[in-house]
Amino acid sequence: MKLPESVRVLVVGAGFAGIAAASKILAEDPGADVVIIERAGDVGGTWRDNTYPGCACDVPTSLYSFSFAPSPDWTHTFARQPEIYRYLRGAVDSTGLRQRIVTDCELLSATWNSAASHWMVETSKGSLTADVLVAATGALSTPKLPDVPGIESFRGTMFHSATWNHEHDVTGERVAVIGTGASAVQFVPEIVDQAARLTVFQRTPAWVVPRLDRTLGRLEKALYRRIPVSQKLVRGVIYGYREAYVTALAHHPRVLPAVTTVAKVHLRRQVKNKAKRAALTPDFMLGCKRILLSNDWLKTLDRPDVDLVPSRLSGVTEDAVVDADGHSYPVDTIIFATGFTPTEPPVSHALVGTDGRTLAEHWDGSPNAFRGTTVHGFPNLFLMYGPNTNLGHSSIVYMLESQATYVAEALRQMTERRLSSVEVTEHSQQQYNSWIHDSLAGTVWNSGGCSSWYLDSEGRNPVMWPTYTFTFRNSTRTFDVSHYRGIPAKEGQQV
Predict the structure, then answer these.
(1) Which among 367, 333, 378, 485 is positioned nearest to 422, based on CA atoms?
(2) Residue 404 reports pLDDT greater than 90
(3) Is residue 100 helix, strand or coil?
(4) Dihedral-angle region of residue 23 (phi above 0 means left; psi in -120 to 50 means alpha; beta otherwise)
(5) 156 lies in a domain?
(6) What's the rounded Cα separation, in Å, for the pair 259 and 181?
(7) Contact at 8 Å (CB) between 343 and 336?
(8) What is the pLDDT of residue 245?
(9) Which GO terms describe its molecular function (predicted)?
(10) Parallel, antiparallel or unpaired: strands 292-293 and 306-309
(11) Are 403 and 456 contained in the same domain?
(12) Mutual orientation of helices 218-226 and 228-243 as an angle, nearest 10°?
């Protein structure tokens, strides 16, 4: 598709978030003027980009999929990356979105024009105007590399797990892995037999529980295909089971020690080396940091050809990595599993609001929004996977579909009331975030005794949703105009 000169709704990003938003808008209004721009050559977002060995989802596939696009063809209860990528491409084709997507088109900037009540957008393929902007670029889209002395002097091979170098063979090499988060637990067991030696740097241990994965059989798939309601029932059961986690994580953390026993037993069974087991035992409550699911991560670290370094990376030389105590480890390849930048998404630097400041400048390192979706000073801007919509227990797809409903309702209200723009009031946004802050105070994410990527530099939590997901869905079923300042459309202005 060619980039138009103007559009009613511009969606930025064609991953789960962008597909959810565009699909819902068009489901409510099939004639809606909607265009999606995608900086890469295909849809898929994080599931297109992350192709490291062993890449898979740690949320059950029955939940980590669109409610409007069920698939009876999943091979595992926890889907692998190639399957999810294939599923997203299929969803785009089945919903007719493909013809509305402009690929290889990166958002460079978007500035709100108050006089014309539209966004002036600059992209790598040219400029356009958009009445409404939906930022669906994701929270985990830009890899984060540590600022380490000497990193530019390294003569070996370096890459981030999110941009895996498939042309590089680690067979027989000494490999350093920096980080022990969700991606490391998946790819380290996959490469350990190829490498001559692995050196894994761990700043903070994490609680690990078994991943209860199984292969979906032919009869089960046939049942889903012939009786689709059966798959919906399974989805509902798993949703309810997952929602029960919130009782422990958010409302009654005192029951967590019982749950922690499962992780402790898992650790004891898989790690026989006492020194390594001690280093792998967290000193904070389960759930404070992301709970990791793996059946082979811990036993991989227990191997004699794997060095576990319970330290941060403090330096890099031409042929080695250095820990915080100054010990040097000769390596040929460095793989960074250091995560992303969720508290300062790159898109925030590209969006300029009513006062001429970027969203990043507005937030100043501590993102906040109303219903995780709208921000005062940025009319007609809707954020998908915005502040305080992340989950520690269920599927973000559920939250994205809830936000998509909110966006579609906003567009409907704007049309019915003939509003050229809507902007959440500062008072409503402040009240909402006060509630968020108070609700998070007693949860394990805030008070579990750890330092995680959930918290910003001020110790505030701009990432997590504090309670049950159905509460969020109920709050986004309708667009509450009373919390917004609406500007009536001018005579003859199309809305």
Answers:
(1) 485
(2) yes
(3) helix
(4) alpha
(5) yes
(6) 20
(7) no
(8) 85
(9) oxidoreductase activity
(10) unpaired
(11) yes
(12) 110
- On whether both 10 and 135 belong to a single domain, the answer is yes
Q: What is the CA radius of gyration of the chain?
A: 23
Mark whether 129 and 155 lie in a shared domain: no
- In the block, tokens 């900037």 appear at 109
| H/E run at residue 34 | strand 34-37
CA of 65: how far to CAs of 130, 400, 482, in Å? 29, 11, 33
pLDDT class of 490 with cuts at 50, 70, 90: confident
Burial (CB count <10 Å: 0-12, 13-18, 19+), residue 435? exposed
Q: Under a CB-based contact definition with an 8 Å cutoff, are residues 465 and 439 in contact?
A: no
pLDDT mean over 399-414: 98
Is 214 within the bounds of a domain? no
**Structural domain includes residue 234:** no
Q: How far apart are CA 306 and CA 317, in angstroms?
A: 21
Range of the domain at 273: 151-206+253-336
Task: Convert the pLDDT of each residue in 142-201 to its tens digit.
Answer: 787 888 999 999 999 999 999 999 999 999 999 999 999 999 999 999 999 999 999 999
Q: Is the pLDDT of residue 42 over 70?
A: yes
Please tell me the predicted confidence (pLDDT) of residue 306: 98
> Is the pTM here over 0.85, yes or no?
yes
Distance, in Å, from the CA atom of 300 to the CA atom of 408, rounded to the nearest integer, reads 47
Element containing residue 470 per DSSP (H, E): helix 469-475
Residue 109 has pLDDT above 90, yes or no: yes
Question: Which segment of 387-401, 442-456, 469-483 scores lowest on mean pLDDT?
Answer: 442-456
Look at the chain and report how many structural domains it folds into: 2
